[in-house]
Amino acid sequence: MPLHPKEPLLTDSTSSSLLFFALITGVFVLMGCRPEVPNSSTKMEPILIGFFGALTGNAAGLGQYTEMGATLAVEEINASGGVLGHPLELRREDNRSLAGESATIVKKLLSRDQVVAIVGDANSGRCLEAGPLCQAAGIPMISPAATLPQVTEIGDFIFRVCFTDPFQGKLMAEFARKNLSLKRIGFLVDATSPYSLGLADVFRDRFTAEGGLVIGEQRYNGGDKDFRAQLTALKADGVEAIFAPRYYHSGGLILRQARELALTFPMLGGDGWEAPELIDVGGSAADGAYFPVHFFAETPTPATRDFLDRFHRRFGKFPTGVSALAFDTLQMIGDALRRSNSIRPKSIRDELAVTRDFPGITGLITMDSHHNAQKSAVIVGVKAGSFQFVSVIEP
Amino acid sequence: MTEFLQQLLNGISLGAIYALIALGYTMVYGVLRFINFAHSDVFMIGSYVGWFALQRFQFQQPSFLGGITVLTLDMAVCALLGVLIEKLAYKPLRNRSTLTVLITAIGVSLLIQNLAQNQKFGFGPNPKAFPPLFPSKQLQFGDLTLSTNQLAVPIVTLGLLAILYWIVHCTRTGTAMRALSFNATAASLVGINNDRIISFTFALGSSLAGAGGVLYAMNYPSIDPLMGTMPGLKAFVAAVLGGIGNLPGAALGGVLIGLVETFVSGTRLSTFRDAIAFAILIAILLFRPAGLLGKLKVEKV
Amino acid sequence: MVPPKSQRLLIATLAIAALISAFSGRIDAYLLDVALGAGISIVLASSLNLINGFTGQFSLGHAGFMAVGAYASAMLTTTLAPKLMGQTELLQWVVFPLSLVAGGLLSALVGVAVGAPSLRLKGDYLAIVTLGFGEIIKVILQNLDAVGGARGLTGIHTHTSLFWVFGSAAVTVYVVWSLLNSTFGRGFVAVADDEVAAEAMGLNSTHYKITAFVVGSFFAGVAGGLYAHLKGYLNPSGFSFDKSIEIVVMVILGGMGRHSGVIVAAVLLTALTEVLRSFGNYRMIVYSVLLIILMLTRPQGLFIWPLKKRKST
Description:
- The complex is a heterotrimer.
- Chain A is an alpha/beta fold.
- Chain A has helices at 17-32, 60-79, 101-111, 124-137, 165-179, 194-209, 228-237, 248-260, 276-282, 302-315, 321-340, 345-353; strands at residues 47-53, 88-94, 117-119, 141-143, 158-160, 184-190, 213-220, 241-243, 267-268, 289-293, 358-360, 363-367, 373-374, 377-383, 386-393.
- Chain A has two domains: 47-163 and 301-375, Rossmann fold, CATH 3.40.50.2300; 165-293, 3-Layer(aba) Sandwich (Rossmann fold), CATH 3.40.50.
- In chain A, 42% of the residues lie in helices and 18% in strands.
- In chain A, the strands form three sheets. A seven-stranded mixed β-sheet of chain A has the order 7-6-8-9-10-14-15, sandwiched between helices.
- The longest helix of chain A has 20 residues, at 60-79.
- Mean pLDDT of chain A is 86; it is low at 1-16 and 29-42.
- Chain B is mainly alpha-helical.
- Chain B contains eleven helices and four strands.
- In chain B, helix 1 (2-32) packs antiparallel against helix 8 (194-219), helix 2 runs parallel beside helix 4 and helix 3 packs across helix 8 (194-219).
- Chain C has a single domain (4-297), classed as ABC transporter involved in vitamin B12 uptake, BtuC, CATH 1.10.3470.
- Chain C has helices at residues 4-22, 29-54, 62-80, 88-118, 123-143, 162-181, 183-193, 195-200, 205-231, 241-254, 259-275, 283-297.
- The longest helix of chain C is centred in the N-terminal third of the chain and has 31 residues, at 88-118.
- The chains are: A alpha/beta, B mainly alpha, C mainly alpha.
- Chains in contact: A-B, A-C, B-C.
- At the A-C interface, helix 1, strand 2, helix 3, helix 4 and helix 6 of A face helix 1, helix 2, helix 5, helix 6 and helix 7 of C.
């Protein structure tokens, strides 16, 4: 296959290539040495808050639900006069659900937009990528829904508004062992997901400590849709229930295929299962699914009812857990700004760290010494095609 | 033993879908000698077309006739889409190097995926639940279970393979396709309208992708804009495994990949499943480069 | 063999890179990140150009080689760093470059393992095999708990500076360029133009192809090392098939087999993805439309420079 038959491959022009590249480096330096954008905060100039998430790509569903929650919070804060006399402005950046992108866009938020705080991705892996940058820059980063414990271990500028994997893994293990009296359980985990692997580890430790047995462990790769092989193997192992923590994408399909293979026992998941799509996809097969949620929409508190209505009016659909968490994240940042009476990132961080009993949509939020929110979780179950309250677990 | 038989059933129903997509790849490759990367996105569009059709008609109850109607409509829409892609993106590049066409195909694939993900122009990124297409029942053979949905896939695939085989081997158009695949210049010299044959090939291949999309969505009823990528890649592997350009080869390759994946998934090695599928492909290419059923071509000087 | 002019240029570029690097503290972090990303793209695209552009093979697994180098060099610096407590100078100027070379060597080794058996395949078949190997490497990394598995590798020191990136880019371009301009290197072109004829002339085409593969994957490994120490975090999912495609697009838009064109394309495409950020959710739509239009209108590459008359021959 001649690739470029008309022209000889080697020309003198090739030697000028090195020159080019010296030129290019020069261009970049010129671009880089531009004078910095002044960031004086005169009256009514907005306070900039960064937001990075998966707005496109394979986790875009989750990312967009998060963004909607954050957007609603900012709009409501601004409608009631903003914070410290300034409106808030959300600077959004998309990492396309890919590894390697978050570092670049967080640098952009930090150095270009000079944001005072950053709302992190709902995904733990991408928070691990961006966290060290925020820590080094001294800008607080708050993830609405990254449950991996390592995220807030990055440093004292990193926070989360949700409960952690050790908490939900432990409570699901205890729920399975005590409330459902299960003894032999099987795992179906996503080997490409830190969230799924982490929850399985915690669950295993707690469940075996309580006298249960994990007798089968099957794995799949993120994005898979066929779980029949793994479920058949678990069935042959003789498990009494399956714990399959991951998002609702795979959750609905796992439930459906399990029932098709005549597995009628309880199916347990993590907080990632919470979305109407779980029941849409799972259909009647979703009955008998149990998982923890950050807030339960059917809980009859006026505040959550009102939030659901406002969200629906704004976006034409109902929020998921991450939307509510992102809403609370922004409200908490607003609260920290008010209390610190300054836009210095350091003082915002100090105020965030001492947040106590903040009345969020997802419950009362108190930051512990590791910057994790201490919150209650609600276990819900699916019965006759709808989510039902099962129990509430305090931290 | 029960487990083995159950896995065998699982593997065949998964493999049949790979086979269906692989048929489309293999046809386009046979005629044009290039990897149509956008094929897996036509497959994705196929399942969305099915979704819209099912929403539109609002069947009270999934019926056999309704299902067939949706499937046929879907294949027609996808055939049109395939021809459109060919006319707009690939035709201007006829006689260019394979790599140019390959990159264009990647561009088309990216465009379809990103348009589909867009909330305004497309379907949005969130997965949608696919409503039941055919009335389904759970069949029970002793300890073995199988849904009629799973059973439908190999049956439809076999039927379409037979029709395809008939078109390629027993009709004038099919003879022209084969002539084109042997030697494009010679084919045009004997009066074959190459452009028309190529469009027809794309229409045929894309309608198969459409059928695959609907059947896949019926079995895995959660559809999203990126759903085509992995099955597409696997199907391509299957087409090469069977001998690219060879119709029964593609079907055989698809079923083999489905079986291997299922049996690997049921063991501790499940996370290496994708790696093992590719390793088998590499082994085949190294020891039998033309694939299982393909004929090796000797390069003429 | 190699005209001294090019050596002088290499030294000059290295000096400029060092000079700029000294002032990099004044460049804002985002621009620095983009500039470093562009430099890494130059290394990747130039090395792939040796494989795809000059020997006429088609590799779709460059991201896999990059991953090998990235993980190898990151593991080296993260395990050695605690033993060299406090000696940041030593870490930055000795251990880091050595780790880059080590990553490159391991990657080259994998390159031989992949290349040797599969190079008798041609065109699309080779493309699929390299694609398969790239995916296999990703899956292995995902299952290797020692390097963090699916959780990713955290806590990598960020040593990558303008000097190292553009220094490596200059060395890559220099090596590829002088390799091709050597007596040995003319063989690459002969193999690319007509393999059968080259074989008939007594050239061992497999030998040339493997050399291209080894050198190409070495520099892909170096680029991986630079990438690891730029991002500070590695995840196997970042080295997917998409990443390989990105590099292939740079080579093709630059004009296969052209040094300067490929360099400019690498920089432009890196800059383009950043400029397109302002399009928000429409970014990738615009990107793919541009890609299709470019392939339809300028399939030979964006930059075909007017040819100078050769002095000799």
